């Protein structure tokens, strides 16, 4: 057994250059990716019209929430049908804090929304850590259904069915002059909100990239894959599950804060079960556990329905028919993904890549015995 | 929650070559005393005791249903005994949880392989030593150099452990694509990477060929310079070859203990394995049957 050690060990790579070592740092890699997304986001926001800007801001909060959910479901293996309700916690927190004459700066509000949602997520997570599969789905489903009625019960604070109107923060001076410098246009409030969403997304992305590649991410996956072995390796199952749930809830809270400003309303009708379910479908379409997948899934969710409606209108369908087309196409897409690529877009791609590499390795070393 | 028990602070040399016996290593005994486990009315283990001496290979054998796996599960905290105590490092393990094991310097392999299918072999092995790295959540979230250093050290150790087992070429592969013996190697590496002082092997030879079993036997004997081994195994020839001490269980009771030679010739063991008819004396026959009768009556 010890004789073939020398042949099996791959030759040590030549000493990495300073550049390689820098790129090897999670910090640097994630910063580069996040900055790339920021630049692309600014370019997109500045090159498109106001309507697309609004769609893009929807994409930011959707993606933030999807990243949180893909970490929870994809990496840690816990399903949640209650993330819409967690977003509601963030949105209501934001709405309440903005509802004053001199609201606090947005970062403070966003942080408060994150903290509030994390606390709720902690309580839900403690319960969730003890449940599996359909029971967990059921419990989070109940949470998604029950939480909006809190708003109905405490009418005084949350204004019942009508909800809270959110006053969008006024763009500060420096932002107006920045936009003026970039595109020569006047910075509207909705443009400011779109930029806030983009910034939140970039920050959320940075942390998600780091965590996914770290020990923490590996431990989450270990718990997902093989509980018993993870436990023997010294991983506390309960604590890890609660940790994942809290992080995921924090993402939902941030998403809720952005959403409140984009939609300008925090009401029970906004945070229905449909929101929770579409988040989950977005994550599944994109590929569970993949951050790129979260982007793809959210983009499908945000852009597909209006696209289909437009195409249907162009095809001379009546307005009613055009409106019915988009859920139909969405359903078909979901069914097709489940049938043909149950791993989602990214899952299918990475599986193909893994197979190819394995095949190449086999052909490269045909005599290697196991 | 159990009180945090100080892990062995002694850093272990992570050189590549088979490490020489280190006399400075604290000699720890693992003791199970008077362990009794009842599942409802069924007595799975009845007052079972065993002692794993430092640097020894201790085998647990017995016919199917004798309680070997239950004993193993007690030893690693999966099953809480109704009575009895476990001692390790001269400390009693009260309220032992499975996730405390790694911190105590105890590792275990699972029946079958129990690898993480969604991770490469290297990541599988790295997970086995995860508790040893000290960087926390914040440095992981910010991707700080500190977390990176920890990860790199972990990765090197995992790679080293794999190549010690002649499995370095498996590192980037995923468990689902590996043949069974290779999966077992990765699983063993995952247990060894935390540099335990006690290794619990649960049927390590199951599914291995004759040659692979010999290899495994040699490996386990090499390990004794660094750790004690407690092994549950069906393959008699392997057990007889590598074990220093053997405890034989039947119907939840210890029917014999001693060296392989002593155990091999013990009439009770022969009776338990081969049936009473084979043993020569009539009186042994009835004695064995009686002892079985009482345990099953108690059940």
UniProtKB/TrEMBL annotation, chain A:
Major place of residence: membrane
UniProtKB keywords: Cell membrane, Membrane, Transmembrane, Transmembrane helix
UniProt membrane topology term: Multi-pass membrane protein
Superkingdom, taxonomy of origin: Bacteria
CDD domains xrefs: TM_PBP1_LivM_like
Membrane-spanning residues: 27-45, 51-72, 104-128, 135-154, 192-211, 244-263, 269-286, 291-308, 328-353
InterPro entries with a match to the protein in the record: ABC_transp_permease, LivM-like
Locations listed in the record: Cell membrane
Protein name in UniProt: Branched-chain amino acid ABC transporter permease
Naturally occurring in which organism (per UniProt): Mumia xiangluensis
From TrEMBL, chain B:
Domain ABC transporter: 30-276
SUPFAM superfamilies: P-loop containing nucleoside triphosphate hydrolases
CDD domains given in the database record: ABC_Mj1267_LivG_branched (cd03219)
InterPro entries, per the entry: AAA+_ATPase, ABC_AA/LPS_Transport, ABC_transporter-like_ATP-bd, BCA_ABC_TP_C, P-loop_NTPase
Alphabetized PROSITE patterns for the sequence: ABC_TRANSPORTER_2
Residue ranges, compositional bias (Pro residues): 1-12
Region (Disordered): 1-28
Pfam families documented for this protein: ABC_tran, BCA_ABC_TP_C
Keyword list, A-Z: ATP-binding, Nucleotide-binding, Transport
SMART domains reported in the protein's UniProt record: AAA
Keyword Nucleotide-binding: yes
GO molecular function terms attached to this record: ATP binding
Domain of life: Bacteria
Coiled coil: none
Cited PANTHER family: CONSERVED COMPONENT OF ABC TRANSPORTER FOR NATURAL AMINO ACIDS, CONSERVED COMPONENT OF ABC TRANSPORTER FOR NATURAL AMINO ACIDS-RELATED
Listed name of the protein: ABC transporter ATP-binding protein
């Amino acid at each position: 057994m010890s004789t073939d050690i020398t042949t099996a060990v791959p030759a040590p790579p030549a000493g990495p250059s300073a550049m390689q070592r820098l790129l090897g740092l999670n910090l640097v890699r994630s910063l580069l990716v996040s900055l790339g997304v920021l630049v692309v986001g600014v370019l997109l926001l500045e090159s498109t019209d106001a309507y697309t800007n609004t769609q893009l801001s929807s994409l930011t909060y959707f993606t933030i929430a999807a990243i949180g959910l893909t970490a929870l479901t994809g990496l840690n293996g816990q399903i949640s049908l209650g993330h819409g309700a967690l977003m509601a916690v963030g949105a209501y927190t934001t709405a309440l804090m903005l509802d004053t004459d001199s609201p606090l700066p947005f970062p403070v509000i966003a942080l408060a929304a994150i903290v509030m949602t994390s606390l709720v997520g902690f309580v839900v997570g403690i319960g969730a850590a003890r449940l599996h599969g359909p029971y967990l789905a059921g419990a989070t489903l109940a949470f998604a259904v029950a939480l909006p009625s809190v708003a109905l019960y405490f009418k005084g604070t949350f204004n019942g069915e009508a909800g809270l109107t959110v006053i969008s923060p006024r763009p500060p001076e420096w932002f107006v002059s920045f936009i003026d410098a970039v595109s020569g246009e006047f910075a509207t409030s909705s443009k400011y909100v779109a930029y806030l969403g983009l910034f939140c997304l970039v920050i959320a992305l940075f942390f998600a990239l780091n965590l996914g590649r770290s020990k923490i991410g590996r431990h989450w996956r270990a718990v997902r894959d093989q509980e018993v072995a993870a436990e023997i390796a010294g991983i506390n199952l309960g604590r890890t599950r609660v940790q994942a749930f809290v992080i995921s809830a924090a993402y939902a809270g941030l998403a809720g804060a952005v959403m409140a400003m984009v939609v300008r309303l925090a009401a029970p009708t906004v945070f229905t079960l449909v929101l929770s379910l579409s988040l989950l479908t977005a994550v599944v379409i994109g590929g569970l556990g993949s951050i790129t997948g979260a982007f793809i899934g959210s983009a499908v969710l945000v852009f597909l329905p209006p696209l289909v409606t437009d195409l249907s209108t162009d095809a001379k369908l009546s307005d009613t028919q055009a409106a019915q087309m988009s859920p139909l196409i969405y359903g078909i897409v979901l069914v097709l993904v489940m049938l043909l690529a149950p791993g989602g877009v990214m899952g299918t791609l990475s599986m193909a890549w893994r197979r190819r590499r394995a095949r190449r390795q086999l052909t490269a070393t045909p005599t290697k015995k196991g | 929650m159990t009180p945090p028990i100080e892990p062995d602070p002694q850093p272990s040399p992570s050189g590549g070559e088979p490490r020489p016996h280190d006399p400075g290593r604290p000699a720890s005994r693992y003791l199970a005393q008077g362990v009794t486990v009842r599942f409802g009315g069924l007595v799975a283990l009845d007052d079972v005791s065993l002692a794993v001496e430092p640097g020894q290979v201790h085998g647990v054998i017995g016919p199917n249903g004798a309680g070997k796996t239950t004993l193993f599960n007690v030893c690693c905290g999966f099953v809480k005994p109704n009575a009895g105590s476990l001692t390790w490092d001269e400390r009693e393990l009260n309220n032992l949880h499975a996730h405390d094991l790694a911190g105590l310097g105890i590792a275990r392999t699972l029946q079958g392989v129990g690898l993480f299918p969604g991770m490469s072999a290297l990541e599988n092995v790295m997970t086995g030593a995860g508790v040893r790295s000290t960087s926390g959540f914040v440095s992981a979230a910010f991707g700080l150099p500190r977390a990176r250093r920890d990860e790199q050290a972990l990765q090197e150790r995992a790679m080293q452990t794999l190549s010690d087992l002649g499995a370095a070429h498996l590192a980037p592969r995923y468990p689902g694509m590996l043949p069974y013996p290779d999966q077992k190697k990765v699983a063993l590496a995952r247990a060894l990477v935390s540099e335990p002082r006690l290794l619990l092997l649960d049927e390590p030879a199951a599914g291995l060929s004759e040659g692979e079993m010999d290899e495994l036997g040699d490996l386990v004997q090499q390990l004794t310079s660094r750790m004690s081994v407690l092994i549950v195994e069906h393959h008699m020839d392997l057990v007889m070859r590598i074990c220093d001490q053997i405890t034989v269980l039947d119907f939840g009771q210890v029917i014999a203990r001693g060296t392989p030679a002593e155990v091999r010739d013990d009439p009770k063991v022969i009776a338990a394995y081969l049936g009473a008819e084979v043993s020569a004396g009539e009186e042994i026959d009835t004695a064995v049957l009686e002892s079985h009768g009482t345990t099953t009556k108690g059940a």
